[in-house]
Amino acid sequence: MTIANHVHADAGRQHPAHATVDPRTALYAGLILRVALGIVFIAHALLKPLVFTFPGTVAFFAAHGFPGWTAYPVFAAELVGGIALIAGMHTRWVSLALVPVLLGALTVHWSNGWSFTATDGGWEYVAFLIAALIAQAALGDGAYAIRSPKVWASGRRQR
User: Does 82 fall in a domain?
Assistant: First the structure.
């Protein structure tokens, strides 16, 4: 059910003013968050081969208690996940699938304190990205999404 359908289905109920959703802008909020998250994940993926190099990233993962080879699936998840988010392909599932990647990052940054400006980066940024992914999963695709789960079920786009 889209946000617009949900709002219209609830039109007869009394809601506090602060709890209403404007269907004219809600889909664009989903779009903005989705594209921003996608850009962040692509940027993080590209840091691995272009800045840190894959051997450096593998060494970093191993130094923090992860098997070194996991650098490659994390890179792939960030890159493919970021592209899927920007495109709006299965946004809810992609958002939720990226949360475990960030939980791994959270374990690396947790002992560094709150602020991401701390030595070796704190956990505030990672925690915010986790919250943003969960919010995106709750919002869904937003406007201008290529595909949503409904496409696969029915064979055509539903609004």
Answer: yes
Q: Are 155 and 146 in contact (CB under 8 A)?
A: no
Domain count within the chain = 1
3-state helix, strand, coil in the chain (%, to 5): 70, 0, 25
Q: Residue 95 is part of which domain span?
A: 25-154
Whether this model's pTM surpasses 0.90: no
Residue 11 forms part of a structural domain: no
Dihedral of alpha carbons 135, 40, 92, 148, sign: positive
Quick check: is 150 in a domain? yes
Place of tokens 């617009």: 4
Host H or E run for residue 125: helix 124-139
Instruction: For residue range 18-71, list pLDDT tens digits in order.
Output: 668 888 899 999 999 999 999 999 999 999 999 999 999 999 999 999 999 999
In a domain, 14, yes or no: no
DSSP string, 97-122: HHHHHHHHHHHHHGGG-S-TTSTT--
